[in-house]
Design brief:
heterodimer, A: alpha/beta, Rossmann fold, seven-stranded mixed sheet, 13 strands, 47% helix, 16% strand, B: mainly alpha, ABC transporter involved in vitamin B12 uptake, BtuC, two-stranded antiparallel ribbon, 13 helices, globular
Chain lengths: 336, 320
Amino acid sequence: MKPTRRDVLVVGAGLAGGAVLSTYVSPERRAARAAGGGGTAPAARDEEYVWLSANAHLGLFRSRDHPALEQAGRDLGVKVRIAGPDTVDIPGLVAAVEQTAARRPAGMMVVGWDPSALVPAIDRAVDAGVPVVCVDADVPGSKRLAFIGTDWTEIGVRQAEAMVRALRGRRGKVALLGLIEQSIDQQAFAGFRSVAEKAGLAVMEPLQDKGNVMEATRVAAGVIQAHPELVGMAGFDSESGPGMGQAVKEAGKVGKIVVTSVETMDQHLQMIKEGILTACIGQKRELFTYFGVKALYDHVHSTLKMKPGVSSIPVNYNTGTFTVTAENVDLFLRGS
Amino acid sequence: MEPPKAPSRPPSREVDLLLVIYLAVIVFSILYPSTFFSWENARAILNNLAADGIVAVGMMALLIAGVFDLSVGSTLSMAGVITGGLLAVRNWPVAAAVAAGLAAAGAGGWLNGVLVARLRVNALITTLGNLLIFGGVALLVGGPSIVNLPREFTWIGQAEDPFLRLQIPVWFMLVLAASAHLLLRNTRSFRQLYYVGSNRKAARLSGIRVERIQILAFTLTGILAGAAGLATAARFSTAVSNAGVGAELRVITAVILGGASLSGGKGTIAGALIGVLFIALIQNTILTADVPPHWHSIVVGCILILALILDAVQNRARES
């Protein structure tokens, strides 16, 4: 039977209605609506901002950085995505940056695990028109638009100040633990030395704890036994504090060795409460990813008239630190 | 056909390694009498090697049977956070939570065994894949960490005997090693591990159920990795989801150093513990001697290779 004009019109109308309906109930639409993109310009809803890091699902990232990233996506009505290898695999991270750039997202946030290896990948992405900011750790030699994170020299300075206060004039050796190959840790070590050595403390060469609590405990236990004149230990990755605290506790040196650390996760807070750790310097990690998305969004949607090749966002966002001690730890334990 | 007996005399590798340990202790005791040669230092070394020692017992059994397991570190983390989560979040009784953690670890080991022994998937790929899967499960269940584990559980990792002040995991490791040593020496079914590792085909032809033996070895190794995970979580009062990262390489290195062979059929439980002790001692002496940190891994690597070269040279001399 030959289709009539009416049949064609009915089928056409049905297809058009189906297309409208499928657009309305499509997963992408649902995601955009769930992201609170009601008041957002239609173009922004399709924008994707990607956060890339090595060890991308590290507990610390999962508990602090990732939720804030998703919050930024909801607040701005854009898509956000997490990418990168699950181990400290720098070539894997470089490959992830290159592959993500090839998909032309609206912007990329890269955690600068290596200040030199990531330079070419970041530069190629920027040259291809994908704006890149570094978060948490910087790649200063690259064409990244901005760095959003903590001033690690300040982390070292704050720890040293807390240690000098707690030692009350006692002098002796101080051990440093961390990921010694990381440039941010090296900045922190320098910051620590700048204060501790002026106060008459002998700061030892930093020791590697591989960002693992068992390794940190083993290294700290060895140092405690090898250096009876040890009066303090300072840690610069998330596992250093709990590891040093455990070693000090097992050696029966609580109160005799002052321990300070970076990060304020539950284990750190518990150890401060028990008097094992003296002070922990917290980073405002939520701001890394939240302002990472915001900075990229501001760059993409800027209405400022800048000179060609000049970025419309600030180069440095210092997110600051806070200090947790026995005096204020209850406040943090209640909130954890 | 009767399977071969486990070595009745201490094999040369173990004796050589013990001799090196003995010499190192003497030299460092003379050089650093107040810091190295102290019970406190020995106690710190032993308390810190217990978890690796427990896993090494299982790994040695696996290597004797001609296979290995790269997922033990992730199994360790997974068992710790599963038990920690059941205790701190679900308020399960300690015995039930411990049983669940060990069961999960055992199931992981069994899965490795079935894939490698029955389905003949390459052990490297299978256990590497499960390293990622179990590590992911640990992250999924535990997040960064699970704190506030109850005292009824944490005493397992923290309680010390009143005389030597060694923690329970150290004693557990020693009792476990002694039991495993006796089982490997005196029971027919465990001695079959040597036969399977030496010549899988001949073992099958002689009526040994090769697959079952290997699955059993994988399952036991999983349970022991789980036990190490529980001991670690109890010791730290916290179940950390990356607690076992890198444990597989440390343990395999120690076990090979202690006399095992990647081709199977060789090794003793005593050798596994001596290998773990040897590595722990090297790491401790490096800290005692204030070796610059960037040299640590180079020094450890060089000593390990040197030890194996010496062993190879001696073996060749004996053969000729």
